[in-house]
Structures are given as C-alpha cells and as structure tokens.
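Box 3.1 — From sequence to structure: Abc-2 type transporter
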Amino acid sequence: MRAYVAFTKKELTEYTRNFKLFLAIALFALLGIMNPLTAKFLPDLLANFMPEGITILIAEPTNLDSWIQFFKNGTQTGLFIIVILLSGMMAKEYEKGTLINMVTKGLPRRTILYSKFTGALLLWTVSYWLCFLITLGYTLYYFPDGTTENLALSVISLYLFGILLIAVLLLGAVLFKNAYGPLLLTGAFLMVLFLWNLFPETAEWNPLVLASRNMDMLQGTLLLEELLKPLLMTGLVIASSLFTAVRLFNKTAL
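Predicted structure (token representation):
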C-alpha cells in the first residue's frame, strides 16, 4: 500500500511539473464558463450578425440550453483534452527506462499501473467536476427558474465514460511504448462503439449511450433502468482493460 501511495504521489507531482494539471484545470474551467454564456448570449449574437431584412426566430434560452453546451463540449472537447494529455502516460517511462530500477528494487508492476490509473483518474475527476460546478453556478445565475430533475444521472454517466476511455488508454500505453499507440487504440475503440449502434439487438448494451444521450437523461426520456446494461458493460470493459493491462505489463520487457 505504501508503494502505491508513494507512486501515485509521484504521478501527481509529474502532472504539476509538466503543467498537465494546470492545463486541464484551465481548459475545463474555461469550458465551464463558456457553456452558460454561449447559451445565454448566442441568440443575441446571431441576431446582430444577420443581414438586414432577414429575421430568424430563436426561442428564449433556458437552462437546458446551458446543459446542451455542457454535454456537447464535454464529449467533443473535454474528453479530447483528457485523452491527449494522458496519451503519453507510459511513453516517457519506457523512453528513459525509469521503471527498471523501481521494478528491480521490488516494486510490483501492477502497483505501477494502478498508480498510473489513479493519477489519470484524479486528473479527470478534478477537471470534470470543476467544469460541472462552474457551469452549474452560472446556469443557476442566468436561468434561476429552470429545473433539472435528472442532472446527477446525466453528468455521472458522462464522467463514467471518461473513466472508460482512461482504462482503454492505459491498455494502449502498455501495448505501445509511445504516445501515438494509445491514441490510435482509443480512436479504434470509439469507432467500434459507433459501429455497435448498427446492430439494434445489442445496441442497448453500448457504453456510448453514457456520452451520447445525456440530454435524454436530463429530460427524463432515458431512465436509470434503461442504463443498467450499458453501465454494466462499461464496468466490464474497465475491469477487463485493467486486468489485461496488468497481465501484459507483467510480461513486457522494460
């Protein structure tokens, strides 16, 4: 346990030294600010930039528009940022050979991977929930009359999908000793998830639901009972990715 805590602290220190923690916090905080501001002022901006004589009817923005921006930016930008920042989580260790001394001195290889996963998970957790809290605060300020009954379900679902991608990234980091292999594996994994939807008989198990139907959850048209299968599949993929990564890492030459 001491080795796990010590190596996890080392990972977090690395994130501060290479500015990944600062970048993640700054970018996600910016997204958190932009989400409600875009929802609030975009209709006015569109109206001002329209040519004279052309009128468009835009509904009055609501709190739902703010959360639409949150989930749009969370899936298209937030997850992309995290994947890019974490793609090289093992590359420098392989390149510099820093793991050799640790392993030869008795540090279990599985401890290294669990610490890597924990550090990445903490980076994602702090960034994501900071973005959420900022969006929530500004949304309550600009749209005080709005109601969001299933907000917890929708935001937790997207958060879990982020953990899924981190687990796949870690597996890719073990398979490929560079920063590009994990990106390619994660991209291929996402492609499989998109193709999965082409088969209606198994689509209800697709983890992609957690990141693609958040507004349906928020509006109550997709309930927790309907998410049990994709949630179970997400847990299985995370567990199997970590298990496979450990098994492969135990046989990998450092």
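Summary of the box: The chain has one domain: 2-251.
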